[in-house]
Write a structure and sequence with these properties.
The structure is a single chain. Helices cover 30% and strands 20% of the residues. By secondary structure, it is an alpha/beta fold. The protein folds into 2 domains: 104 residues, 2-Layer Sandwich (60s Ribosomal Protein L30, Chain: A), CATH 3.30.1330; 159 residues, 3-Layer(aba) Sandwich (Alpha/beta knot). It has a 7-stranded parallel β-sheet with strand order 8-7-6-11-9-12-10. A 5-stranded mixed β-sheet has the order 1-4-3-5-2. Strand 6, helix 7 and strand 7 form a beta-alpha-beta unit. Helix 7 packs parallel to helix 12. The chain is elongated. The protein starts with a strand and ends with a helix. The model has no long low-confidence stretch (mean pLDDT 92).
């Protein structure tokens, strides 16, 4: 039997994970094994469960108990299911975007870079991308367009941030990923050296006089290639570009000199996929 808990207001301490704790508090940097993330919408929650993520509790509109969330509730065993009318839940910021169902889940343990990349031929590296919408969109493209893994640098937005997960349509739970370093000084030099040691050529997506076109055969013929994408606005750091094996640009028309990083990632992933 599902463990349904009726909620008439949002002041209950059991709801803090949904209502009052910040993303940083949920992440729990001091004790990451106790960290929590929030998955929103039945599709995202289902993909998280498929990936082995462990649910802690659910919060939803009462009407979803026998509707969109019925399968989710069954899969979550006996965890508390906090249910309320929409008028109560509408007080939550952004609740309208959640499709009426949220799930607090344990943060999964991340693999090492070496474990993640052992059998990979194409990996995406996200350097300092702080917009969760872009991170989510890049993960969705990575899942659709044949990336084997995604690496995020220490200054990059957390892929488990709820908006990133929502925009990704849950694909952050389908594409293997991990952080390449724990502190800012771990990137770019140490991180790029780790990739080279694993047999990867590194390709910086950037505008440069020495850039080669994305259609260049040296890129397509690479057995292992890491595609490095930079932050919104400033792009990749100069040190990153200098230390990568290749600098790569996407030929454009009509005088356009750059694309949004999420759009550029989709072009790069498709063009440079492993063949």
């Amino acid at each position: 039997m599902p463990n349904i808990v009726e909620v008439t207001d949002l002041t209950r301490p059991e709801l803090d994970v949904f209502t009052r704790l910040t993303e940083a508090q949920l992440r729990n940097r001091l004790e990451p094994e106790k960290g929590i993330f929030i998955a929103e919408s039945p599709k995202v929650i289902a993909r998280a469960l498929d990936a082995g993520c462990v649910p802690v509790s659910l919060l939803m509109e009462r009407r979803h108990i026998d509707g969109d969330a019925a399968d989710i509730i069954a899969r979550c065993g006996g965890v508390p299911v906090f249910a309320a009318e929409r008028e109560v839940l509408a007080k939550l910021t952004g609740f309208a975007l959640t499709r009426g169902v949220l799930c607090a889940m344990r943060r999964p343990k991340l693999p090492s870079v070496e474990e993640l990349c052992a059998d990979a031929h194409r990996v995406a590296v996200l350097e300092g991308i702080v917009d969760p919408t872009n991170v989510g969109a890049i993960f969705r493209s990575a899942a659709a367009l044949h990336m084997d893994a995604v690496l995020v640098t220490p200054t990059c937005c957390d892929p488990l941030y709820r908006r990133a997960a929502r925009v990704s349509m849950g694909t952050i739970f389908q594409v293997p990923w991990t952080r390449i370093g724990d502190k800012a000084s771990d990137w770019p030099h140490p991180g790029l050296e780790r990739l080279n040691a694993l047999g990867f050529q590194t390709a910086a997506m950037a505008l440069s006089d020495r850039a080669i076109g994305i259609e260049d055969s040296v890129l397509k013929e690479a057995d292992k290639l890491a595609i490095v994408l930079g932050t919104e606005g400033d792009g990749l750091a100069e040190e990153t570009i200098a230390r990568c094996d290749h600098t790569v640009c996407i030929p454009m028309s009509h005088g356009v000199d750059s694309l949004n990083v999420a759009a550029a990632s989709a072009v790069a992933f498709w063009e440079l996929r492993y063949r």
